[in-house]
Amino acid sequence: MTITTADKIEIQDLAARTYIGLDSEDAAGFAAGFATDGVFVAPYGEFVGPAAVQDFITGHIAAGKEDGVRHFLTNHVVDAHDDGARYRFYIIKMNIAIGPVAIATAGGDCIVTREAEGWRFKRFQLIIDPAMFGDAKPVVAPARPAAA
Questions:
Q1: What is the pTM of this model?
Q2: CA 110: distance to chain centroid?
Q3: pLDDT tier, 1 (very low <50, low <70, confident <90, very high otherwise)
Q4: How far is CA 116 from CA 38, 120, 131, in A?
Q5: Domains by residue range for the chain, with CATH
Q6: If pLDDT is split at 50, 70 and 90, which confidence band does 137 have?
Q7: What are the pLDDT digits (tens) for 79-96?
Q8: Which of 3, 40, 95, 114 has its CA 20 to 30 A from that of 120?
Q9: Can you name the residues that pair with 66 across neighbouring β-strands?
Q10: Could you tell me the CA-to-CA distances from 74 to 38, 45, 64, 93 in Å, in that order?
């Protein structure tokens, strides 16, 4: 398969919309980027299909793991792949409520496929850098400021 400049832009847009969904605490928005049989693979488990991804992200948000944070995506690389394209990028998770303070870094190593609706994640491997799970846990701001 040949990957065009337009394909690369659409694939990067897919990731941007996925993480804007997460930063907006919109689990459905995050999950919308997955193919019907798409798999989200993270240290927390494997979630197959948009409904399973949405359920996981809903719980992740409810647990406060996205309170006061924003994700920045960098170093986008898109290469042709038998199933569509291989898409790799870095993720910087910042606490913007009390910072900005970087609280985690990760990489995305994905296979994306073109569907009728556009490019979708066939397999999204989230590779969180080891410091995230070290002794120093990230500081996540409370969802709402404490009353004075």
A1: 0.85
A2: 10
A3: confident
A4: 15, 10, 39
A5: 5-131 (3.10.450.50)
A6: low
A7: 999 989 999 999 999 988
A8: 95
A9: none
A10: 23, 24, 25, 11
